Structure of G-protein coupled receptors family 1 profile domain-containing protein:
Amino acid sequence: MNDKNATFCDSWSGLTIDDTVSYINSILLATANAPCAIFAFLSNLAVIVTVARNSSLQRPSNILLCSLAFTDFLTAVTAQPMFIVWRLVLPNSKEPCSNQLLIFYLYYISYVFTAGLSFLNVTIMSFDRHYAVSNPLVYMAEASKEGAIKKVTFAGVVWLIFTALNILVLPPFVRGLSISIWGAVFFVAPPINYVRTWLAIVHHNRQVAENVVSSQQLKAVLQREKKVFRDMLLVTMVLFASLVPGMLGSAIMEHLGYYRELALFLPWARTMSLAPSTINPLIYFVRNEYLRNAFKSMVKI
């Protein structure tokens, strides 16, 4: 590696040659991410297989959760391994700068696709929850497994095409504008929909308390849909919270400039942004008794 490339790669990665602290930091990052990636791979696969093999679990809401589980599964087999490889390559001063950049871009592409698809999924889920809670009996009559599968498949194809166009075709200005538009949708739509859903829950609770709603079927459907709402809200909160460390790090770098401690922190912020793929399946199994029992029955625990 010549001096020019070394200077560029060192400043870009936050790692200096023969830097023991940075080397240890990269090893710790790889050590922390490896078991998380393995767990995310196995646990999300378990969620998908459990729902696929149990027709009683194949409700529209569970199909949407499976779509998010599939996205987290992709994260575990693409973005997380490439992040680990990238961090392990950085301390190797013999590795050409171009190789470091190639590994980073592979990680970046996979992360943009899976992170964006996660936000697209939770946005779809937020609209689904508002409709389900606002009109529970209509939702029960109209929503179907097939419709949910078509919805998430179409969304996945659209996001794949957008990611490919964004990275390979669009000029920088259009790319930045399109990312800003999608980001605004992803950050605004779910909170608004969940507030609307909460207001619908308050309205229904008032009707139940005043005995306006007397149908036992309606009450049962409302209870189920409200529980699904709380589960999906928790998943959405985890996804949003995972971005906070990275946003804080970027804000600090924007105002104070790039300095050594920040260089050591930012990779951990990236690790936090990958954490939902590990946390989400835990939420599914802990909070969904039917899913948990179906999995135990499947593996004969």
Remarks:
- Residues 69 and 140 are 23 Å apart (CA to CA).
- Confidence is low (pLDDT under 50) at residues 1-8, 10-18.
- DSSP finds 13 helices and no strands in the chain.
